[in-house]
Amino acid sequence: MKALELRQISYTYPGGTKALDEISFSVEEGQSVAILGSNGAGKSTLLDILLGWNKVGDVSLFGKDLSSYGRKELGRTLALVPQSEHYNFSFTLLEYTLFGRSPYLSQMGIPTQEDAEIASQALKEVGLAAYEDRPITSLSGGEHQLLLLARAIAQQSKVLLLDEPTSALDPANRMRVINILKSLSEQGKTLLFTTHDANLAYELATHVAMLKKGKMLCYGTKEETVTSQMLTTLYETPMHVGMVEGKTLIY
Ligand SMILES: Nc1ncnc2c1ncn2[C@@H]1O[C@H](COP(=O)(O)OP(=O)(O)OP(=O)(O)O)[C@@H](O)[C@H]1O
Protein backbone atom coordinates (compact mmCIF):
# COMPACT_ATOMS: atom_id res chain seq x y z
CA MET A 1 0.00 0.00 0.00
CA LYS A 2 1.28 3.46 -0.88
CA ALA A 3 1.43 5.54 2.29
CA LEU A 4 2.27 8.74 0.41
CA GLU A 5 2.10 9.75 -3.20
CA LEU A 6 2.99 13.10 -4.76
CA ARG A 7 2.40 13.79 -8.41
CA GLN A 8 4.01 16.72 -10.21
CA ILE A 9 4.08 19.00 -7.19
CA SER A 10 5.33 22.53 -7.77
CA TYR A 11 5.23 25.34 -5.23
CA THR A 12 6.04 29.03 -5.61
CA TYR A 13 6.02 31.35 -2.58
CA PRO A 14 4.06 34.63 -2.84
CA GLY A 15 7.34 36.57 -3.30
CA GLY A 16 8.05 34.53 -6.44
CA THR A 17 10.60 31.94 -5.19
CA LYS A 18 9.95 28.61 -6.88
CA ALA A 19 10.71 26.23 -3.99
CA LEU A 20 9.56 22.98 -5.63
CA ASP A 21 9.47 22.09 -9.29
CA GLU A 22 7.44 19.08 -10.48
CA ILE A 23 8.25 16.70 -7.66
CA SER A 24 6.82 13.19 -7.98
CA PHE A 25 7.48 10.21 -5.75
CA SER A 26 5.70 7.64 -3.66
CA VAL A 27 6.47 5.97 -0.36
CA GLU A 28 5.27 2.47 0.45
CA GLU A 29 3.90 1.83 3.93
CA GLY A 30 6.76 0.86 6.29
CA GLN A 31 9.49 2.52 4.25
CA SER A 32 11.81 5.06 5.80
CA VAL A 33 12.73 7.95 3.52
CA ALA A 34 15.47 10.54 4.04
CA ILE A 35 15.20 13.83 2.21
CA LEU A 36 18.64 15.26 1.56
CA GLY A 37 19.42 18.63 0.04
CA SER A 38 21.42 21.82 0.55
CA ASN A 39 20.08 24.85 2.42
CA GLY A 40 17.11 26.24 0.53
CA ALA A 41 16.64 23.07 -1.57
CA GLY A 42 12.95 22.84 -0.65
CA LYS A 43 12.93 20.18 2.10
CA SER A 44 10.82 22.14 4.63
CA THR A 45 8.47 23.28 1.87
CA LEU A 46 7.95 19.63 0.96
CA LEU A 47 7.13 18.75 4.60
CA ASP A 48 4.66 21.65 4.76
CA ILE A 49 2.94 20.31 1.66
CA LEU A 50 2.69 16.82 3.15
CA LEU A 51 1.08 18.36 6.24
CA GLY A 52 -1.45 20.16 4.07
CA TRP A 53 -0.15 23.58 5.21
CA ASN A 54 0.95 24.63 1.75
CA LYS A 55 -1.99 23.74 -0.45
CA VAL A 56 -1.17 22.09 -3.76
CA GLY A 57 -2.96 19.44 -5.77
CA ASP A 58 -2.28 15.77 -6.12
CA VAL A 59 -0.94 14.56 -2.79
CA SER A 60 -2.45 11.35 -1.47
CA LEU A 61 -2.17 9.61 1.83
CA PHE A 62 -3.02 5.90 1.88
CA GLY A 63 -4.74 6.29 -1.49
CA LYS A 64 -6.95 9.19 -0.39
CA ASP A 65 -6.56 12.83 -1.34
CA LEU A 66 -4.81 14.72 1.47
CA SER A 67 -7.30 17.60 1.27
CA SER A 68 -10.21 15.26 1.99
CA TYR A 69 -8.85 14.23 5.40
CA GLY A 70 -10.65 15.56 8.49
CA ARG A 71 -8.50 17.10 11.23
CA LYS A 72 -8.63 14.18 13.66
CA GLU A 73 -8.32 11.58 10.90
CA LEU A 74 -5.20 13.37 9.65
CA GLY A 75 -3.80 13.47 13.18
CA ARG A 76 -4.25 9.72 13.55
CA THR A 77 -2.48 9.18 10.23
CA LEU A 78 0.33 11.73 10.25
CA ALA A 79 2.49 13.20 13.03
CA LEU A 80 5.04 15.97 12.71
CA VAL A 81 8.26 16.22 14.69
CA PRO A 82 9.48 19.79 14.09
CA GLN A 83 13.02 20.82 15.03
CA SER A 84 11.61 23.18 17.62
CA GLU A 85 8.37 24.85 18.57
CA HIS A 86 7.46 28.15 20.19
CA TYR A 87 5.55 27.80 23.48
CA ASN A 88 2.77 30.24 24.30
CA PHE A 89 2.00 28.74 27.70
CA SER A 90 4.05 26.89 30.27
CA PHE A 91 2.71 23.35 30.31
CA THR A 92 4.37 20.43 32.06
CA LEU A 93 6.11 17.87 29.84
CA LEU A 94 3.31 15.40 30.46
CA GLU A 95 0.62 17.92 29.50
CA TYR A 96 2.52 18.84 26.35
CA THR A 97 3.00 15.19 25.36
CA LEU A 98 -0.73 14.68 25.91
CA PHE A 99 -1.40 17.04 22.99
CA GLY A 100 -0.33 14.06 20.87
CA ARG A 101 -3.51 12.33 22.02
CA SER A 102 -5.80 15.11 20.62
CA PRO A 103 -6.88 13.07 17.57
CA TYR A 104 -8.31 10.41 19.90
CA LEU A 105 -10.14 12.60 22.43
CA SER A 106 -13.93 12.77 22.66
CA GLN A 107 -15.93 15.97 22.08
CA MET A 108 -15.28 16.96 25.71
CA GLY A 109 -11.55 16.90 24.98
CA ILE A 110 -10.60 15.34 28.31
CA PRO A 111 -7.73 12.83 28.20
CA THR A 112 -8.37 9.46 29.85
CA GLN A 113 -6.09 7.57 32.21
CA GLU A 114 -5.01 5.48 29.20
CA ASP A 115 -4.01 8.66 27.31
CA ALA A 116 -1.93 9.74 30.31
CA GLU A 117 -0.23 6.34 30.42
CA ILE A 118 0.57 6.46 26.70
CA ALA A 119 2.05 9.96 27.08
CA SER A 120 4.03 8.89 30.14
CA GLN A 121 5.41 5.86 28.29
CA ALA A 122 6.42 8.09 25.34
CA LEU A 123 8.35 10.38 27.70
CA LYS A 124 10.05 7.33 29.15
CA GLU A 125 11.09 6.15 25.67
CA VAL A 126 12.86 9.42 24.92
CA GLY A 127 14.50 9.48 28.35
CA LEU A 128 12.47 12.36 29.86
CA ALA A 129 10.39 10.36 32.37
CA ALA A 130 12.04 12.03 35.34
CA TYR A 131 11.00 15.48 34.05
CA GLU A 132 7.30 14.67 33.53
CA ASP A 133 6.09 17.36 35.92
CA ARG A 134 8.62 20.03 35.00
CA PRO A 135 7.56 23.06 32.96
CA ILE A 136 8.51 22.80 29.28
CA THR A 137 10.13 26.22 29.47
CA SER A 138 12.87 24.70 31.65
CA LEU A 139 14.15 22.35 28.92
CA SER A 140 17.46 22.55 27.06
CA GLY A 141 17.44 22.63 23.25
CA GLY A 142 18.12 18.89 22.96
CA GLU A 143 15.52 17.97 25.60
CA HIS A 144 13.02 20.15 23.74
CA GLN A 145 13.67 18.16 20.56
CA LEU A 146 13.20 14.88 22.46
CA LEU A 147 9.90 16.17 23.88
CA LEU A 148 8.59 16.86 20.38
CA LEU A 149 9.45 13.28 19.44
CA ALA A 150 7.65 12.01 22.56
CA ARG A 151 4.50 13.88 21.55
CA ALA A 152 4.62 12.26 18.10
CA ILE A 153 5.15 8.81 19.65
CA ALA A 154 2.09 9.39 21.85
CA GLN A 155 0.14 10.34 18.71
CA GLN A 156 0.50 6.73 17.44
CA SER A 157 0.07 7.80 13.81
CA LYS A 158 0.94 5.56 10.87
CA VAL A 159 3.33 8.12 9.34
CA LEU A 160 5.92 10.32 11.04
CA LEU A 161 7.35 13.40 9.34
CA LEU A 162 10.54 14.55 11.05
CA ASP A 163 12.43 17.76 10.40
CA GLU A 164 16.13 17.13 11.11
CA PRO A 165 15.29 14.86 14.07
CA THR A 166 18.77 14.78 15.61
CA SER A 167 19.97 18.34 14.87
CA ALA A 168 20.15 19.46 18.54
CA LEU A 169 21.25 16.17 20.07
CA ASP A 170 24.50 14.98 21.67
CA PRO A 171 25.94 11.64 20.43
CA ALA A 172 24.17 9.53 23.09
CA ASN A 173 20.76 11.09 22.46
CA ARG A 174 21.37 10.94 18.69
CA MET A 175 21.86 7.18 19.07
CA ARG A 176 18.78 6.95 21.31
CA VAL A 177 16.66 8.68 18.66
CA ILE A 178 18.10 6.50 15.88
CA ASN A 179 17.16 3.40 17.90
CA ILE A 180 13.65 4.72 18.62
CA LEU A 181 13.09 5.49 14.94
CA LYS A 182 14.45 2.08 13.90
CA SER A 183 12.08 0.45 16.34
CA LEU A 184 9.11 2.49 15.02
CA SER A 185 10.12 1.46 11.52
CA GLU A 186 10.21 -2.21 12.57
CA GLN A 187 6.69 -1.77 13.95
CA GLY A 188 5.61 -0.84 10.40
CA LYS A 189 5.50 2.94 10.75
CA THR A 190 6.33 4.98 7.66
CA LEU A 191 9.04 7.59 8.28
CA LEU A 192 9.99 10.58 6.20
CA PHE A 193 12.73 12.81 7.57
CA THR A 194 14.84 15.70 6.38
CA THR A 195 18.49 15.83 7.31
CA HIS A 196 21.83 17.41 6.51
CA ASP A 197 23.51 14.34 7.93
CA ALA A 198 24.13 11.83 5.11
CA ASN A 199 25.35 9.26 7.65
CA LEU A 200 22.03 9.47 9.50
CA ALA A 201 20.21 9.07 6.17
CA TYR A 202 22.24 5.97 5.36
CA GLU A 203 21.79 4.47 8.81
CA LEU A 204 18.06 5.03 9.12
CA ALA A 205 16.54 5.20 5.67
CA THR A 206 15.50 2.50 3.26
CA HIS A 207 15.13 5.13 0.53
CA VAL A 208 16.65 8.53 -0.15
CA ALA A 209 15.23 11.53 -2.02
CA MET A 210 17.80 14.12 -3.09
CA LEU A 211 16.42 17.60 -3.68
CA LYS A 212 18.47 20.16 -5.54
CA LYS A 213 17.13 23.68 -6.08
CA GLY A 214 13.55 22.45 -5.85
CA LYS A 215 14.00 19.57 -8.28
CA MET A 216 14.33 15.87 -7.56
CA LEU A 217 17.92 14.95 -8.38
CA CYS A 218 17.27 11.28 -7.64
CA TYR A 219 15.01 8.98 -5.64
CA GLY A 220 15.57 5.32 -4.90
CA THR A 221 16.95 2.85 -2.40
CA LYS A 222 19.83 4.18 -0.33
CA GLU A 223 22.18 1.72 -2.02
CA GLU A 224 21.22 3.13 -5.44
CA THR A 225 21.31 6.79 -4.51
CA VAL A 226 23.95 7.33 -1.83
CA THR A 227 27.12 7.36 -3.93
CA SER A 228 30.14 9.67 -3.86
CA GLN A 229 29.21 10.99 -7.30
CA MET A 230 25.57 11.70 -6.45
CA LEU A 231 26.37 13.39 -3.11
CA THR A 232 29.10 15.50 -4.75
CA THR A 233 26.58 16.63 -7.37
CA LEU A 234 23.96 17.31 -4.70
CA TYR A 235 26.12 19.41 -2.39
CA GLU A 236 28.52 20.80 -5.03
CA THR A 237 31.41 19.88 -2.75
CA PRO A 238 33.56 16.73 -2.73
CA MET A 239 31.83 13.91 -0.79
CA HIS A 240 32.97 10.34 -0.32
CA VAL A 241 31.12 7.16 0.56
CA GLY A 242 33.57 4.72 2.11
CA MET A 243 33.73 1.75 4.44
CA VAL A 244 35.26 1.75 7.93
CA GLU A 245 35.27 -1.49 9.93
CA GLY A 246 32.51 -2.90 7.72
CA LYS A 247 30.30 0.16 8.17
CA THR A 248 29.40 2.74 5.52
CA LEU A 249 30.85 6.15 6.34
CA ILE A 250 30.10 9.31 4.40
CA TYR A 251 32.48 12.24 4.70
N1 LIG B 1 7.80 31.88 3.55
C1 LIG B 1 8.61 31.98 2.51
N2 LIG B 1 8.49 33.01 1.65
C2 LIG B 1 9.29 33.11 0.57
N3 LIG B 1 10.26 32.22 0.26
C3 LIG B 1 10.42 31.18 1.08
C4 LIG B 1 9.61 31.00 2.25
N4 LIG B 1 10.01 29.87 2.88
C5 LIG B 1 11.02 29.36 2.14
N5 LIG B 1 11.27 30.14 1.06
C6 LIG B 1 12.28 29.91 0.03
O1 LIG B 1 11.98 28.67 -0.62
C7 LIG B 1 13.18 27.95 -0.86
C8 LIG B 1 13.10 26.58 -0.18
O2 LIG B 1 13.13 26.79 1.22
P1 LIG B 1 13.02 25.59 2.27
O3 LIG B 1 12.87 26.20 3.62
O4 LIG B 1 11.97 24.64 1.81
O5 LIG B 1 14.46 24.90 2.10
P2 LIG B 1 15.17 23.79 3.00
O6 LIG B 1 15.67 22.76 2.05
O7 LIG B 1 14.27 23.33 4.09
O8 LIG B 1 16.39 24.60 3.58
P3 LIG B 1 17.25 24.47 4.96
O9 LIG B 1 18.07 23.23 4.83
O10 LIG B 1 18.11 25.70 4.92
O11 LIG B 1 16.28 24.44 6.11
C9 LIG B 1 14.34 28.82 -0.38
O12 LIG B 1 14.85 29.53 -1.48
C10 LIG B 1 13.68 29.77 0.60
O13 LIG B 1 14.35 31.01 0.66
UniProtKB/TrEMBL annotation:
<dbReference type="Pfam" id="PF00005">
    <property type="entry name" value="ABC_tran"/>
</dbReference>
<dbReference type="InterPro" id="IPR003439">
    <property type="entry name" value="ABC_transporter-like_ATP-bd"/>
</dbReference>
<dbReference type="InterPro" id="IPR003593">
    <property type="entry name" value="AAA+_ATPase"/>
</dbReference>
<keyword id="KW-0067">ATP-binding</keyword>
<protein>
    <submittedName>
        <fullName>Phosphonate-transporting ATPase</fullName>
        <ecNumber>3.6.3.28</ecNumber>
    </submittedName>
</protein>
<dbReference type="GO" id="GO:0016887">
    <property type="term" value="F:ATP hydrolysis activity"/>
</dbReference>
<comment type="function">
    <text>Part of the ABC transporter complex HmuTUV involved in hemin import. Responsible for energy coupling to the transport system.</text>
</comment>
<dbReference type="GO" id="GO:0005524">
    <property type="term" value="F:ATP binding"/>
</dbReference>
<keyword id="KW-0547">Nucleotide-binding</keyword>
<keyword id="KW-0813">Transport</keyword>
<keyword id="KW-1278">Translocase</keyword>
<dbReference type="InterPro" id="IPR027417">
    <property type="entry name" value="P-loop_NTPase"/>
</dbReference>
<feature type="domain" description="ABC transporter">
    <location>
        <begin position="4"/>
        <end position="238"/>
    </location>
</feature>
<keyword id="KW-0378">Hydrolase</keyword>
